[in-house]
Design a protein that fits this description.
By secondary structure, the chain is an alpha/beta fold. It has two domains: about 100 residues, no CATH class; about 325 residues, Rossmann fold. The chain has 17 helices and twelve strands. The strands form three sheets. Strands 3-2-1-7-8-9-10 form a seven-stranded parallel β-sheet, sandwiched between helices. The C terminus is likely disordered.
Length: about 450
């Protein structure tokens, strides 16, 4: 371990807001010591006879320079030991007894760095967005996730039909990804009931958000309260509060017009390639908090996630795309690492990017980040072999888009991105752009 990485020395790192108070503490102890020394000197000069033990306690038999060095070193050592033991004592009362107590300097360092991190907006849904968020929170607290609310299948679809609220499924995953609560609480949000009349298939998190929406009177307030309960770092917002339906036009055979399908859950089972997707109604207004976050962002990340059923449902809210075009942020599209059956079969990186351009027009993002590791297809689980493949790098450059490649795949699950690798690469790309950020250099240091 290098000397600079020793846990105790992290108290001296820039931006910790601790050194000033350590200096103040040292000044206070020094002042108290001087006061006691003056008092002892007064006793000596006044002729007061002190017990013989003071002769040895004050090291009168040692020359004064050596005495100052010994007493000063002893005092400093006692101060350090006291601070470390106070750290341990405070954490033992704040954390459960069974939980391993981390180093307080590490905790303070990580939080200080993430509090000074860039303002990031992440757009998408499903597992892709939650994977991204779990990596981004290592770098910044200033995260706004704009999450797809067009889902109409499974537990979310049932809640949407039965209670008339927006589908909570993708939002639930993002809450769990950004949560700082105990791991058991995050796991509880993802718990799915396997049986029980009316409960089978539902997740606890979906039911919690539904109950909070009923208690608070609004879906957005329910998300806010769930975020507070789970100690979420950042914000999670829908792109619109309107009840939108995702529709698709499929390619027809022999050049004929394809049929139209309504409902996100039905699109990938249509049996024909997707020509385009659209929202019904097409003019749903954007949620104002989502637009505000985009306009003030340093970085806007689009994806990863299902191209037609997670990413485009957010971007097809016209005010969202308009805000992205207007934003001064660095705008990055993260291409999926694997194709999706029934949605992006045989798609390469170029086809993913072209589909976005066909739907939204050019100029929505500046950079496309694609996975460079083309080898791990043999690691797919047996049930996925032959149904999906690694998205090939079939383009060196794309007009109007800077293409960046990196190994951002998860070695243990080649269908997914690795959260830490993906977030690290995004921060590296952001650092190459002259953007207006608060204390940019400090913000690009990882908080782990």
């Amino acid at each position: 371990m290098r000397w600079r990485e020793r846990p105790g020395l992290k108290w001296l790192y820039p931006g910790m807001h601790v050194k000033r108070w350590l200096v103040l503490l040292l000044g206070g102890v020094t002042s108290l010591a001087l006061g006691l020394a003056l008092l002892l000197r007064h006793f000596y000069l006044s002729g007061l006879r002190l017990p013989p033990v003071f002769y040895y306690v004050t090291l009168q038999f040692v020359p004064r320079p050596a005495r100052a060095m010994v007493l000063g070193s002893l005092g400093l050592a006692l101060i350090v030991i006291a601070i470390l033991k106070l750290n341990d004592s405070l954490l033992s009362t704040l954390l459960p007894a069974r939980q391993r107590r981390p180093n307080l300097a590490d905790l303070v360092y990580r939080r200080r760095q993430s509090q000074r991190g860039p303002r990031v907006v992440a757009i998408g849904g499903g597992h892709g967005l939650s994977t991204l968020l779990s990596g981004l929170k290592l770098y910044t607290d200033h995260i706004t996730a704009i999450v797809n609310v067009a889902d109409d299948g499974g537990s979310s679809g049932r809640i949407r039909r039965d209670f008339g609220i927006l589908p909570p499924g993708d939002i639930r995953r993002c809450l769990a990804a950004l949560s700082e609560a105990e791991p058991l609480m995050a796991a509880l949000m993802e718990y799915r009931f396997a049986n029980g009349e009316g409960l089978e298939g539902h997740t606890f998190g979906n039911l919690l958000i539904t109950a909070l929406a009923d208690l608070t009177g609004s879906f957005e307030e329910a998300i806010s309260e769930a975020s507070r309960v789970l100690a979420v770092r950042g914000e999670i917002v829908p792109p619109t509060l309107s009840n939108v339906t995702l529709c698709a036009e499929l390619h027809g055979e022999n050049g004929e017009a394809g049929r139209h399908i309504a409902g996100e859950s039905q699109i990938t089972s249509g049996g024909m390639p997707i020509k385009r997707v659209y929202l019904d109604p097409p003019d749903a207004p954007a949620y104002s908090e989502a637009v505000r976050a985009i306009l003030s962002a340093d970085l806007v990340v689009i994806g990863p996630g299902s191209l037609y059923t997670s990413i485009l449902p957010v971007l097809l809210v016209n005010d969202i795309t308009r805000a992205i075009r207007t934003s001064q942020a660095v705008r990055i599209y993260v291409c999926n690492v694997a194709t999706e059956p029934g949605e992006t079969d045989h798609f390469g990186v170029q086809a993913h990017i072209q589909a976005l351009i066909d739907h939204l027009g050019p100029g929505v993002f500046d950079v496309a980040l694609a996975n460079s590791n083309q080898e791990p297809a043999e690691n797919f689980a047996p049930e996925w072999r032959g149904r999906t493949a690694i998205v090939p790098l079939d383009a060196d450059e794309i007009s109007g888009v800077r293409l960046v490649t990196a190994d951002i795949i998860n070695p243990s699950n080649p269908l997914r991105h690795d959260p830490a690798r993906l977030a690290s690469e995004l921060m590296r790309i952001l650092g190459t752009y002259p953007v207006n950020m608060r204390e940019q250099a400090a913000a690009l240091m990882p908080a782990s």
